[in-house]
Write a structure and sequence with these properties.
This protein is an all-alpha fold. Helix 1 packs across helix 5, helix 4 packs across helix 5 and helix 5 crosses helix 6. The longest helix has 20 residues.
């Protein structure tokens, strides 16, 4: 498999994470407004940073390297107010995308951890 740049892993990870969350929240309510609120509560910068912090001590040296490199990517001008959080959120999404493409076993392992932790966020 060809190696991608980190932005592409983050792009993929953003979609994978949102689908993962939607698969869980869709069964929580039939009300579309509540459904949207539940989903956006978990698919946002601050929740992603909290989850990254939660798993940081579980990451391998390779994963820590990915986090470090991804959090140092240039950020869009509109995100400069929350620069630190946005960078960590990008690192989270990059890990999700990397696991999804490179290591499905690790991806599934981490999603189980996240599934338990998202209950605390809700």
């Amino acid at each position: 498999m060809q190696e991608m740049n980190l932005r592409n892993y983050a792009y993929l990870g953003d979609s994978v994470w949102e689908l993962f969350i939607r698969e869980r929240t869709v069964f929580m309510t039939n009300n579309s407004k509540k459904l949207h609120n539940l989903t956006t509560k978990l698919v946002n910068t601050f929740s992603q940073v909290a989850l990254l912090n939660h798993i940081e001590n579980l990451l391998t040296p390779k994963e820590l390297e990915i986090v470090k490199r991804a959090r140092n990517l240039p950020i869009p001008v509109g995100r400069r107010g929350i620069q630190h959080e946005y960078r960590l959120s990008t690192a989270f999404e990059t890990l999700i995308g990397w696991w999804f493409l490179k290591d499905k076993t690790r991806y599934n392992e981490m999603m189980k951890i996240f599934e338990k932790e998202i209950q605390n966020i809700l």
